[in-house]
Amino acid sequence: MGLRPEEWAALLLSLKVSVVATLLSLPVALAVAWVLARREFWGKSFLSALVHLPLVLPPVVTGYLLLLTFGRNGAVGGFLEQFGIVLAFRWTGAALAAAIMGFPLMVRAIRLAIEAVDPRLEQAASTLGAGRWAGFILVTLPLIAPGILAGAVLGFAKAMGEFGATITFVANIPGQTQTLPSAIYAFLQVPGGEGSALRLVGLSLVVALGAVLVSEWLARRVAERIGRG
Amino acid sequence: MSLSVRITHQLGDFTLDVAFEAGPGVTALFGPSGSGKTSVANGIAGLLVPDEGRVTLRDQVLFDAAQGVCVAAHKRRIGYVFQDGRLFPHLTVEGNIRFGMRFAKGVGNPAEVVDLLGLESLMQRRPGALSGGEKQRVALARALMSNPEILLMDEPLAALDEPRKEEILPYLERLRDQSDIPILYVSHSVAEVARLADDLVILQGGKVACHGPAEEVLSDPAAMPFVGVREAGSILRAKVLEHGPDGLSRLVISGGELVLPGVTADEGSVIRIRVLSQDILLSVERPAGLSSRNILPVTVESLRLGDGPGAAISLCAGEERLLARITAQAAREMGLEPGTRCFAILKATAVPKGSIGAAKSA
Q1: Which of B38, B42, B62, B74 should one mutate to test binding to chain A, selecting the residue with the greatest count of A CBs within 10 A?
Q2: Does domain B3-218 match CATH 3.40.30.10?
Q3: What is the CATH number of domain B233-358?
Q4: CB-based contact A91:A14 (threshold 8 Å)
Q5: In DSSP terms, which residues pair with B69 in a beta bridge?
Q6: In a 3-state reduction of DSSP, which class is residue B157?
Q7: pLDDT, tens digit, 9 for 90 and up, residues A15-31
């Protein structure tokens, strides 16, 4: 495709960051979505607001808050550093930022799917001898699979496009924290960088389109499998 | 007794306070909507934790508020057939039935259950492609495959139209007569109860109003207000003598002979017939020159004058009981009182096909 090394690096880094962010946040999103859909407890609206916060906060604010919390001098960052985990100005930090920015979208999609499943089906499963976990895994999980898939695709897409929080938290270091959007931004800042920027824009389009097509195809297969197609 | 239930539970300003026992065969829990039937079933299944009470199944304590015992729903061996079926939409019929076996203690025979409920041709279908009646048969099969110690059926036919009900009732009769699993059948339909129940518990406003063998309760004038005057009627057990070429069948009951149309059971088999109290005429003398072929000599057992113009009269015809509803005025003029001998007249065409069902031959 005639990509220059730094363009390749940005693409691969973006993919790595997005895949890791999606895979790590998915189980958490599933748990939070389940709690929000199925449980009543004190502070539920607060949890819901907290989850949705990255959606409404300016990304640069989220990035700065991440820096304050997970930076080397931050409360959590300092603690993690004892175990050799450094997030600020590393690709892992980019993954964290992407995960947090995509989290509300994931939770929302999965929560809607869970709310669409009749909880009385789980009751029916329990009268057939299935405990809570077995009922969830054998009945609810297959039924919400399309929702989980949709949530994962949204989260992945958001991660691929994340810019504001990422650049604030981990900066824009070529080869280390320079994701696709950061690279486009950087190329646009230098004279003669339009060619590279344009190639990366095209690449972004291809990746985004591919993700949507793959998810549509998967969703159709899942729908067929669970008999809703 | 297989199942012993004592439940007190407060639901808003509705108080549920019931106690009854259910033995082998079909025990019907009958009452209008809002009488607390489903809450009782849920309390037994463990889907609702009552405020007070005790539930035991065979020797096992499932719930005892005083001792703080509450066995989790999935550990109770109770098969539950819900009104809305609740089949798992992502599984085929076969998958749903296998789900029942998955956690079962002891292995049932799927082929037998599939055969009993006539599901062979449906096995690869999804629940979405089944009719309401088929769904309920699959739900029943699924519950049976979990090898339960008792089967709870909560209004399993309520969501179905008349033809679909007629399609399922024979399966339920077969289940009742061929398996030895006790069944608690929750319903607000007298017709279903009359077809299926061995014992009857009538719930009214969260309390047990009547309890006893279905034949006795249904022919008891005191139960008539709970059943409803238009629906009230007794159950007769009759043996099919022969089918005539004209479509009429001769039946024998312990108090005499009946001639009815629409009987399809084999000659020699025993059937249950529901006779509505408003379809019976009474005469103090043996009537002559009547069109009705069904004239039974009976003895008045008890009578009850209602608040309105009607009177409910329980009659003995041999071992069988009939319930008649006539006007209080007529009862007075005829001088009816317990012990009076008279004749009950039943119009043959008054008994619809749906009121005739199979019975276990005694």
Answers
A1: B74
A2: no
A3: 2.40.50.100
A4: no
A5: B64
A6: coil
A7: 999 999 999 999 999 99
